[in-house]
Amino acid sequence: MQPLGDAVKATTYLDFDDRREDDYLDLSTSLIKRFGYNHDDISNNYKLAEQIARAYQAGQTLPSPYTSPDDTYYRGGGVRQDMVGYEKFDYHLLPHLTGSTTVYGHYDRGPGTWSDPYDPTPASLGGSPLSVSTTEYRMQRESVLTSLAYQRWNHKIEAGFWFENNLFSQAAKLYPLQEGVTPSNFQRFYENPFAVQWQYTFRTHVYQFHLEDSWSITPKLRVNAGFKSLVSSSSVTTAQSANPINASISASNGFLPQVGVLYRFNRHHEIFADFARNMSAYTASASTGPFSTTQAGFSYIHNKLKPETTNTEELGYRFRNDSVQASLTGYYVDFENRLLASSMSSVIVGNQNVLENVGSVTSRGVEAAATWRFFRN
Questions:
Q1: Does pTM top 0.85 for this prediction?
Q2: Which of 70, 281, 304, 311 has the highest CB neighbour number within 10 Å of its CB?
């Protein structure tokens, strides 16, 4: 953090992470009944994984007790690197006028890995009956968000704008494994695939404007009210696929109101109520959302889809003293145009999804929470 004169403060932030992990095997009721709750990948037995794949590909009986190459795998997991950075400027322009502007970027890459018993490694590249199947992704986001706040008398009025450009690519690729040689480093970034099954590039532009007023009507009563306008436009282009899709879709809503009321009886007790209307933009991805289908499938649903929206209402009570914080909240959420992606087969077969609006869903309930600090430490 660096002051730039008396009126401006600059904040620079940078974060990096590097993740490598093995995942547990997905279990079904059938697998649990046959193998028990401790059933998992066979990452300590590469030879057995090759035997299962080789038997399946030759149409032979699999090594007991396995009856399908999907009963277990050698390994599967995820590799990921993220770098996030921003530069933020907070400024005090006039006695009652303040603001901030943030420019940020996010770079992300990684594959999800899986020892594939269906696609053997070519003999010239190692000859294993297994290969490494990856779903790879890269994401690059650049954005700016800025706001101004004017505070005078009992009002704080704020207006702001957010823009983001999101470039996201996904690909399914196959990498070679050496026959009879246990991989020394399975969870890693791979290069030089021997096959690319599909590869797509997605671009999303988000524009959002908001205006709000925080009005302290009395020392005990405060009302927050405002709205936001949101436009999200996404497109997809196909680099390689047996089911190419090149399309675009937008979700927009010019008026999404929000209002909240807070009343403090004293420094220990307060009640609150609020209402918010929100809209969810469409997901731009090969695995979910309106683009996770064929060109014909997208053409069929394009003019029929509507973005999901919610109306959320809350009413609650909060208590606070030196040792106890407690709250009791009742809520009601009404989903409109709920989207559901229906898979036409088991996921591993790779058939495209069918996305459709399935009507409304309501959710209502009560939430209670309490924290007790019984000693200072």
A1: yes
A2: 281
